[in-house]
Amino acid sequence: xxxxxxxxxxALLTALVLTACTPTAAAPATPSAAPTDDSxxxxxxxxxxxxxxxxxxxxxxxxxxxxxxxxxxxxxxxxQSEPFRVGATEVPDGILCKWSDGSATAAGVQMFGWAPxxxxxxxxxxxxxxxxxxKREDAxxxxxxxxxxxxxxxxxxxxxxxxxxxxxxxxVKVADTKQSLVLIDWPPSQR
Length: 191
What we know:
The chain is of the alpha+beta class. The chain has helices spanning 2-21, 66-74, 119-131, and strands spanning 78-82, 85-86, 89-90, 95-100, 110-116, 135-138, 144-147, 164-168, 171-175. A seven-stranded antiparallel sheet has the order 1-4-5-9-8-7-6, with helices on one face. Strands 2-3 form a two-stranded antiparallel sheet. The protein is globular and about 40 Å long.
């Protein structure tokens, strides 16, 4: 049963990753409204008048690829959000999302989170995780991965990576595996 569940979860994750890599059709252009006599009194909307996507708060629907969220919804999954934590420490303005069918005995759960974090708090969080047995890996671009100790996985995870944090310049992401971090697509300025 456990192998079947692991295989099904791996197949779903693979399908989600591949779906996220497929190009989407461009949105059709919408015609602009015809000018009226009072158009001089009302300025026309321009792209710079649209709300700043960066100003929006992250949600379970927006921190992951939209195609991934759509795939989860298509199989009846919903997201439950909670405060973002690194260990027991809550990171302000962050969000942690757990996607599942919502049942108490859910066969599969996918976890994604994002939070802004300054360098001092990130360094402390990394040190605290490593001190409690987590493994640190430096990425070639200066980012830092901190992942569960492989000895704790008991068959979970992929390639020896279970829950993994990615500390970058001003942010921290978390997913249930290192490979799932690629599905986190927040903030919009980093797309």
